[in-house]
Amino acid sequence: MNIGLDMMGGDYAPLEAIKGIKLFREANQDAHLTLFGDAELVNTLLAEHGIDQNTCTLVHTTQVIDMHEHPTKAMREKPDSSISIGFQHLAKGNVDAFISAGNTGAMMVGSLFSIKAIEGIHRPTIGAYMPRENGKLGWLLDAGINSDCKPENLVQFAILGSLFAEQVLNIPNPRVGLINIGEEEGKGNILAQAAYPLLKEESSINFIGNIEGRDIFLDKADVMVCEGFTGNVVLKLAESVYPFIQARGIKDPFFDMFEFEQYGGVPVLGVNKPVIIGHGISHGKAFKNMITLAELMIRKDLLGKIKEKFTT
Amino acid sequence: MNIGLDMMGGDYAPLEAIKGIKLFREANQDAHLTLFGDAELVNTLLAEHGIDQNTCTLVHTTQVIDMHEHPTKAMREKPDSSISIGFQHLAKGNVDAFISAGNTGAMMVGSLFSIKAIEGIHRPTIGAYMPRENGKLGWLLDAGINSDCKPENLVQFAILGSLFAEQVLNIPNPRVGLINIGEEEGKGNILAQAAYPLLKEESSINFIGNIEGRDIFLDKADVMVCEGFTGNVVLKLAESVYPFIQARGIKDPFFDMFEFEQYGGVPVLGVNKPVIIGHGISHGKAFKNMITLAELMIRKDLLGKIKEKFTT
């Protein structure tokens, strides 16, 4: 197993990526890593942090896509950037997964244009972890990539989310809820009204019906589907809670779950290979968790299971 | 000034409405009240709570619309319900405002069919208070009545919300933010992309641009506009926070603001007369606050100001 990691992505690159590798190694995890970035800089840091360089392959890249660059333009104009080269290696099969905490848009462009959507999947998606009062995690999708959706897209999100919840979050037969503004079938906007019967008909998922805003932090559904506009507003609202908790000196295990950094990053679901996108502010722990997630996605063959579902 | 109050609406009717009247009177507020409900029951409770019956007019009604009845059906089949009779009195001008913590759908039907939308307003709306970390309140609309919207609807919500914020929340020149999934113009779903330039052009509001989910509990915009799907999910999510806080024994002034009951109810903005809808679980304090809100809306002539804006 060979996991590719963009060393130049994120606000604290490459130092926090290095710290993440160290934490990953300390947890006795032995996947081989391929590191994309400035070789001299990365080598020096690897040595400084006492990381065995035999467990990593270094691929020297000379360009960096900044956080605020226009994604398609940057991907075109910076062919030797760590993200561009990382995707080349992923496409060729030199690495089995690619991780970056860099420009999210560029990561999406790379995913859609070099790795491409799995046949049959109309809209690859990104999800988000949602804290639950009982200490478990829910999985909400779409978290902001697809802001206008068709009912069929929500069904595909539900299938992708269910496979992720089952394989990666270890939830057998995950309950799927449609985020809506009423409990009964027939409630909601045009999209939710049209998606409900399609979700009900889809035999490969465990659809439990509508859930409302008040259910999002409760363990009512394991997989919560909506278009990416509502999903993104919910995600950013949830992400805003932890700073309040910290600033006010509140210590509480439920609210500690709102520290989104601990979740590392999230996979782009629906593309042909494992791609994981991290938050720009990712620190060591987040990088470690992203590498662990990639390792788990490969070990469980999540992609194989998704492809099997969509091609049969 | 004569404020109409449905005594039979809400989960704890009519006792909590009585308690609300008592609290309102104790605050030395002297608006005359017209109470719609079972006269014997209400009279007994007024006497028991030592409320001066000269400050109230009782209108006996024999029917009650339950919380879960189908709104239009219930309004048609229960012409002598407290809600139906209340709206009749409001339409005739016997009362200057009408308040109920009963069936929200029936209150909307009454608002739209007996009071009607103000000329020029396409979609009357309901807003929601949003707690802010600095102790102030924001105003989000639409909170769930209009789940599919056109860009022009959002502009009208912004105008209505601005007048409400200015007159009732006492915020001069309120800042209007468009709830979106990115900061820059051009971001978002089709609706948000189309609404942005219209909001920018609308000279009667102080449009500050897009705000994101993370800004909702921050004092970034006073008035936050979106369609009612996202708004309702956000509202119900926010409403779910206080029970967690209570259950976990957290005491904090910011999180105390998530006790939504304290805000009483919210007005239906865009109809010809003041109508206020409360939460089914309203207790005395909520009823008191709803009567106070009605009194303030009448005293400030909010409706006159809205009509002036939309007819010129």
Description:
The structure is a homodimer of 312-residue chains. The first copy, chain A, has 312 residues and is α/β, with parallel strands linked by helices. In chain A, 42% of the residues lie in helices and 18% in strands. Chain A is built from twelve helices and eleven strands. Chain A has an eleven-stranded mixed β-sheet with strand order 3-2-1-4-11-10-5-6-9-7-8, sandwiched between helices. Chain A starts with a strand and ends with a helix. The model of chain A has no long low-confidence stretch (mean pLDDT 96). The interface between A and B is large, with 36 and 37 residues.
How many domains make up the coordinates of chain A? Answer: 2
> What's the helical proportion of residues of chain A?
40-55%
Task: Name the structural class of chain A.
Answer: alpha/beta
Mean pLDDT of chain A: 96
Give the overall shape of chain A.
Answer: globular
Level-1 CATH class name of the largest domain in chain A: Alpha Beta
Neighbour order of strands in the largest sheet of chain A:
3-2-1-4-11-10-5-6-9-7-8
Major sheet size, sense and barrel closure of chain A: 11 strands, mixed
Number of helices of chain A: 12
Oligomer: homodimer
Parts with pLDDT < 50 across at least 5 consecutive residues of chain A: none
What name is given to the CATH topology of the largest domain in chain A?
Isopropylmalate Dehydrogenase
Please report the total strand number of chain A as a whole number. 11
Question: From the 3D coordinates, which CATH architecture of the largest domain in chain A would you assign?
Answer: 3-Layer(aba) Sandwich
Distance between the amino and carboxyl termini of chain A: 27 Å
Percentage of residues in DSSP E strands of chain A: 15-25%
Radius of gyration of chain A (CA) equals 19 Å
CATH superfamily of the largest domain in chain A: Isopropylmalate Dehydrogenase
- Secondary-structure element pattern of chain A, one letter each: EHEHEHHEHEEHEHEEHHHEEHH
Biggest interface, and residues per chain?
A: A-B, 36 and 37 residues
